[in-house]
Design a protein that fits this description.
InterPro entries: Metallo-B-lactamas, RibonucZ/Hydroxyglut_hydro. This is MBL fold metallo-hydrolase. It comes from Hymenobacter ruricola. The protein contains seven helices and 17 strands. The protein is α/β, with parallel strands linked by helices. Strand 1 and strand 2 form a beta hairpin. It is globular. 18% of the residues lie in helices and 21% in strands.
């Protein structure tokens, strides 16, 4: 039986029991936050990084599979003649405030005005580091469709996206972009909320199924063995998997997977190359900012080709593993 999120009439719930808050309590967390010695933010300025806006604006070849990581979970994907943008965030801070909250380590490598024509924007959930109001308001001026989990469409409509351009899906529901290209909202183990709200909207991962290639975009998720196995069985193997590796900690291990669990998920999904997301852009946890990628490199076996481009660096997935080592 396929795993399903539960809605009790007011809130969404994970398919399996999931702890969202710190298991040791907020007092312990505060002590670690205040006294921890980790290098949680770069000591030296990063970048500037520059994407090639002219090259990215060229038509996408019908057999292409390319990715341009723009930071955190924002990625420009070129798949089989189509172009997608995942979880677009151009904000300086991922916070309700423009004055406080996690701040970017580097400027976006591609100005929002230079983002080329898109076939769709794909959203995983409504947390501030994945759904940025100012960015959405800018993209709303374009004639681009948005695909999101249930409930997230209310944010988009409020920010100016025409209702006709919003498709909200539950887990396992499909949307056909064309007869040969399908998007599928698939399970994740996480939570949602902005401000003081929690779980009024659903969270999801996504499968992008083209005529030549299949891509998995994980959004945010904690360990979810059965969920990833079901997704891999239903839609894998994938030509590219994009999974979060940062902001993980034992205190909230149910909702963020970290590098080791990401590698396990990658194998359950039947992944090919792995492009890690959700790291190296904002200080959202207590680990050193480089730690996720360093651990990933140490633990990934030869059977997992890693794609580690610099921000804004376009990757041709067929070219094989890449390590730009930009964080050093």
């Amino acid at each position: 039986m396929q795993l399903q999120a539960r809605h009790d009439g007011k809130k969404y719930h994970n398919a399996i029991a999931t702890a969202v808050g710190p298991t040791s309590g907020y007092g312990t967390l505060l002590k670690r936050y205040l006294w921890g010695k980790e290098e949680r933010e770069p000591r030296q300025p990063l970048g500037p990084f520059r994407a090639d806006a002219v090259a990215l604006a060229a038509p996408v070849p019908p057999n292409a599979l390319r990715a341009t990581w723009l930071g955190h979970s924002t990625t420009l994907l070129e798949i089989d003649g189509r172009r997608f943008l995942t979880d677009p965030v151009w904000a300086e801070r991922v916070s309700p405030s423009k004055l406080v909250g996690p701040k970017r380590f580097f400027a976006p490598p591609l100005p929002l005005a230079d983002v080329p024509a898109l076939d769709a924007v794909i959203l995983s959930h409504d947390h501030y580091d994945h759904l940025d109001e100012a960015t959405i308001r800018t993209l709303a001026r374009r004639e681009v469709p948005f695909f999101c989990p249930l409930g997230v469409g209310a944010h988009l409509r409020r920010w100016g996206v025409a209702p006709a351009r919003i498709t909200e899906l539950n887990w396992w529901e499909k949307a056909a972009l064309a007869p040969d290209f399908t998007l599928v909202a698939t399970p994740a183990r996480h939570f949602s909320g902005r401000g003081l709200t929690r779980n009024n909207t659903l969270w999801a991962s996504w499968c992008l199924l083209g005529p030549q290639h299949k891509v998995f975009f994980g959004g945010d998720s904690g360990p979810f063995e059965e969920g990833f196995r079901q997704i891999g069985t239903a839609f894998g193997p994938f030509d590219l998997t994009m999974l979060e590796i940062g902001a993980a900690d034992a205190e909230w291990a149910d909702i963020h997977m970290g590098p080791l669990v990401a590698l396990q998920a990658h194998r359950l999904l039947g992944g090919g190359p792995l492009l890690p997301l959700h790291w190296g852009t904002f200080n959202l946890a207590l680990h050193a900012w480089r730690a996720p990628v360093q651990e990933l490199l140490a633990e990934a076996g030869p059977e997992v080709p890693l794609l580690l481009p610099a921000p804004g660096q376009r990757v041709d997935v067929a070219a094989g593993p890449l390590n730009a080592n930009w964080w050093e």
